[in-house]
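Model it.
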Amino acid sequence: MAGQTTLHLLCGRIASGKSTLATELGRRPGTVVIREDHWLSGLYGKELRSIDDYVRCAGLLRGIVGPHVTDLLNAGVSVVLDFQANTTGARSWMRGLLDETEAAHVLHLLDVPEEVCLARLRARNDAGLHLFAVTEAQFRQISRHFVPPAPDEGFAVQVHPVAT
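Modeled.
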C-alpha cells in the first residue's frame, strides 16, 4: 500500500495501544494523524465528566472532523484517524467517510486482553501523562460496548496481537 492514499482506522480497548500505533503510522510520508482525545480535550475538556458527555461531544466532533478527513484523503494525504472504531456505529461513520473518497483503508485491530489493557491503564493513570484518566469502572463499562469488526462490514482488517 506504499504510496497509496490510505485511511487508517484503530479498533481496540482503552489502553490497548491505539495512540501508540497511530503515532507510528503517522511517521509515514504524506500522512497526518487526527487524534480524538486532543480535539475533545481542547474543545470540550471541562464538559467531559461522564461517558454520556463523551458520547455527546464525540458526536459533535465527528460532524466537524469528518468532512476534513475526506478533504485530506481526496487531496492525496493519508490519514490516521485516532478515533475508536470499537462499535459498529463508529465504524459505520468511518465507512461513510471512505465512501466519499477513492482512498484505500486498513482497520487496525489491536488484539490485547482486557487484563493487559487494565494494567496499562493503571500505569498510564499513575503517570498522569494522558489527557483523560479512566477509572477501572469506566473501563469495564466502556469495554462492554466493544464489538470486533465482522467480515460483513467490509473492512480490510490487520490484526496486531499483544506485544510480549
